[in-house]
Amino acid sequence: MKKIFSLTLLFLTLHSFANPDSLFIRKIYDEALVSGQCYENLRSLCKDIGARITGSAEAKMAIKWGHDLLESYGFDNVYLQEIKVPHWERGTTEAGWIMNESGKLSKLNILALGGSVGTEGLLEGEIVLVESVSDLEKVGKENIKGKIVFFNKPFDQTQINTFKAYGACVDQRWDGATKAALYEAKAVIIRSLAQSTDDHAHTGSMHYEEGVIQIPAAAISTVDADKLTEWLSKGKVFVKMEMDCRYYADEISYNVIAEMTGHEDDKIITFGGHLDSWDIGEGAHDDGAGIVHSIEAIRLLKKLNYYNNHTLRCVLFMNEENGNFGGKSYAEIASENKEQHICAIESDRGGFLPIGFDIQGTPAQVEMVQQFRDLLFDFELYKFEPGYSGVDIRPLMQHYPDMLQLGMVINSQEYFDYHHAETDVFESVNKRELELGSAAMAAIIYLMDKTL
Amino acid sequence: MKKIFSLTLLFLTLHSFANPDSLFIRKIYDEALVSGQCYENLRSLCKDIGARITGSAEAKMAIKWGHDLLESYGFDNVYLQEIKVPHWERGTTEAGWIMNESGKLSKLNILALGGSVGTEGLLEGEIVLVESVSDLEKVGKENIKGKIVFFNKPFDQTQINTFKAYGACVDQRWDGATKAALYEAKAVIIRSLAQSTDDHAHTGSMHYEEGVIQIPAAAISTVDADKLTEWLSKGKVFVKMEMDCRYYADEISYNVIAEMTGHEDDKIITFGGHLDSWDIGEGAHDDGAGIVHSIEAIRLLKKLNYYNNHTLRCVLFMNEENGNFGGKSYAEIASENKEQHICAIESDRGGFLPIGFDIQGTPAQVEMVQQFRDLLFDFELYKFEPGYSGVDIRPLMQHYPDMLQLGMVINSQEYFDYHHAETDVFESVNKRELELGSAAMAAIIYLMDKTL
Question: What is the distance between the alpha carbons of residues A348 and A408, in angstroms, rounded to a whole number?
């Protein structure tokens, strides 16, 4: 009996020595799940700060919040990186009504798209349904001129990965106003880029192109879009709407950065999410989750006394939502300073269950990451496929084309119920799923630091 | 250009012919995600029926609900299978208070465990903390006799799969009263088997053993358990509690069954979940989800005109929660009727994101199922490991030891926030995740029917 016990012990000991990575990652998960701080950090970011669009008072407070929190953990360097950002505000008026030919009236809950111009008073007009941006030509200028275009492309529900459904209709939000203006439309209303049929409108970034008249653009909920479609099937529909959203002068803002200095060299592994959010809800999933994932990841590695080879740099990027000047400036400054960037990792797909990492790199880099598949399977991470990394870190690749980039893959099924909507609040995030995201991020940083 | 197009078409055509399984499963998912009925079926089961403990009026109505719904889909055989079931009721009184030595009083929200005897009026006594069932001996009869045992074993948060955490402390619910009675305790209070720290008590089955005095047993929320622990750290704590729960005479009830008759033979593939639930909440995740997964799976296969080799039998089992007489009787009747059972599949782990199937079978059977790993990876199903099938179908294996059994694996992170608690309501289920579960079930039934 004693002999068996000793043999078992010997085996376990050998086994342990054979899998130091597995043992260390187990410690990361234990700390994250038992004594994790990311959930309470997210509560604070959502409740003490709230929605924090670039240029707002809340965004300024979020910078202080992030800086103070990272300082409290005692990292080697905690600092602000100055950047220039746009400043757009929704304003105080946002109201819409639809009417049919008999004069029947109904409230239309409009939500200005981020970056839209205002209506300059009450804007009135007939609505013309255009199923998608690519249908503008088919509908023709004669039917669009002087009217308000309603783009109604819905999510393709058959996509298993909901980001694909989003990608297939995001042009109506980003490009719809500019494209409709070319057909002389007066304004644009879009069906929200949302997964479910509900009452919440979803905002998000749009842009104007040089030389094209700037017309107002707003989103309506999927329920309202269905109602509007039904009204339009029965005859003419007119809208009255007013929005006083506008741009102010550009401002100075900051990325917030904390580091664990490399013990072996100055090469840098960047990881982060974005600190700004849209101006409704609390930016809990987008991207409060990515912020607390990243802060927790570096806290976990420090707490476990990890001896890092390269410099581990946690970045809370500003202004991802409407301009990405945080990400672009970070990349430019890195290049100017001749920093050596070997890897960047982003979390910007919500606080739901993490399932793996999308790999943006060469086939050899993809293979290098995939070697850890078996190791990470025990932690229910299984997806390690070539894919997109993230908006904030993507500009680095222009300056460092040989670097590896990773985007944390997260169960996407519920994400577009909350994305850019008033529903994206702290209560929609599950504690354990958030903690697993933090641990997954710390684990991949550890593996990349050891391997690269 | 035209040549390239023709070659592409040829390639696609060949590719399609090479993967008929993949194409058919794609159709299953399309139908489930675009025209699925499981979500509205679950709404009806939760809202039109509600909680449906075995023996209740709601359980009787749920049988009619299931039978009518399956008949409306026009399957070959829809019938009720008579079984004998226990009948336990919570009663109308469930109240508790704690007091310290200074007479400070606080409400204790107790929830009788399923199967507990009542208190026969107000039961009073001093509480003794016992960390887990295995600690009874250490605490000793001298400290337990005449007192009320408080079992306080929490979930091990480091378990990635939360069912392992549940399994490690379920004995305090199932066995606590019997074991504590052997030490002459007067009653038992347990810390709820719950993942999160919140205000909801979780019920669940307990049992008494022949020849041991039957003492009352109740659960309290994790928040109350922490409060009680804190009070106990400061001095003696006394409880007053009353519950009038009790057993009534056994009753006749039914499993509800629908079939698609096999075209090639009489061999049977059974799949299902359980129709009964506990008597609080709405039994949405446990196991309304499994019920509508199973009904939708057979509806999808019929809708797509699937030509099934074996008989596909959808079973809505009664009485899984407190006795499993549905599952046991189903197995006995199958054996008596000399039916040929080759495979059984169960969904009883909630309506969250499906991630794979646990395989209960021989190594050859495990390998057979695992051959579909790559095919199902496109649908984000990746876990196909040896494991446990399900409570309802497990008894079949006593009669058919060579059969294959599968248990649908579902993201477990949130399950024990809802399990057996008043929070387990329709609103806690996401439409798409539920639909993906139905499609996954239909896909695996299809693959097993083709392969076995």
Answer: 8
pLDDT-based confidence at B17, cuts 50/70/90? low
CB contact under 8 A, B157 and A378: no
User: CA of A7 to nearest chain B CA: how many angstroms apart?
Assistant: 26
> Is A41 a member of any domain?
yes
Nearest Cα of chain A lies from the Cα of B379 at a distance, in angstroms, of 6
Q: Which residues in A lie closer than 8 A to residue B416 (C-beta atoms)?
A: none
What predicted TM-score, i.e. pTM, was given to this entire model?
0.95
Query: How many CB pairs below 8 Å do chains A and B form together?
Result: 63
Residue B284 counted as domain residue: yes
Can you tell me the distance from the alpha carbon of A97 to that of A109, in angstroms, rounded to the nearest whole number? 8
Identify whether residues B346 and B375 lie together within a single domain.
yes
Q: What is the per-residue pLDDT across B149-195, written as a single tens digit (0 to 9) for each?
A: 999 999 999 999 999 999 999 999 999 999 999 999 999 999 999 99
CATH code (residue A274) = 3.40.630.10
CB contact under 8 A, B382 and A378: no
How far apart CA B321 and CA B253 sit, in angstroms, is 14
Confirm whether A320 is a catalytic residue.
Answer: yes
The stretches in chain A having pLDDT less than 50 are 1-16
**B443 and B381 share one domain:** yes
Q: Which domain holds residue B110?
A: 91-244
Residue of B nearest to A154 (CA): B34
Q: Please state, in angstroms and rounded to a whole number, the distance separating the CA atoms of residues B280 and B424.
A: 8
Q: Are residues B413 and B301 in the same domain?
A: yes
Indicate the burial class of A251 (C-beta count within 10 angstroms; 0-12, 13-18, 19 or more). Answer: middle
Per-residue model confidence (pLDDT) at position B409? 98
Query: B436: which chain A residues are within 8 Å (Cβ-Cβ)?
Result: 160, 413
CB A87 within 8 A of CB A251: yes
Name every chain B residue with its beta carbon within 8 A of the beta carbon of A166. none
In whole angstroms, give the CA distance from residue A413 to residue B265.
39
Pinpoint the alpha helices (H) of A149-189: 162-169, 171-174, 176-181
Q: Are residues A283 and A400 in the same domain?
A: yes
| B206 and B317 inside one domain | no
B7 belongs to a structural domain: no
User: Looking at the 3D structure of chain A, how many domains does it have?
Assistant: 2
Instruction: Tell me the per-residue pLDDT of B334-387, one tens digit each, with 9 for 90 and over.
Output: 999 999 999 999 999 999 999 999 999 999 999 999 999 999 999 999 999 999
Q: For residue A366, is it within any domain?
A: yes
Q: Which residues of A touch B160 (CB under 8 A)?
A: 29, 378-380, 436
- Predicted local distance difference test score (pLDDT) of residue A5: 46
CATH of the domain at A125: 3.50.30.30
- Residue B83 has phi, psi (to 5 degrees) of -140, 160
Q: How far does Cα B399 stand from its chain's mean position?
A: 22
Pair (B71, B100) in one structural domain? no
In a shared domain, residues B304 and B334: yes
Contact A215, A180 (CB under 8 A): yes
Nearest to B266 by CA among B340, B345, B342: B340
Domain boundary among A217, A244, A271: A244
Write the CB contacts of B109 (distance below 8 Å, at least 6 apart in sequence): B96, B199, B201, B220, B221, B224
Q: Which chain B residues touch A157 with a CB distance below 8 Å?
A: 33-34, 432
Of A244, A278, A306, which one is at a domain's C-terminal end? A244
For residue B400, is pLDDT > 50?
yes
Catalytic residues of B: 320
Q: Is ipTM > 0.90 here?
A: yes
Residue of B35, B43, B155, B158 to mutate, testing the A interface (most A Cβ within 10 Å of its Cβ): B158
Q: Do A378 and B195 touch (CB under 8 A)?
A: no
How far away is chain B from the Cα of A434, in angstroms, using its nearest Cα? 10
Cβ contact A161–B380 (<8 Å): yes
Nearest to B409 by CA among B208, B175, B162: B162
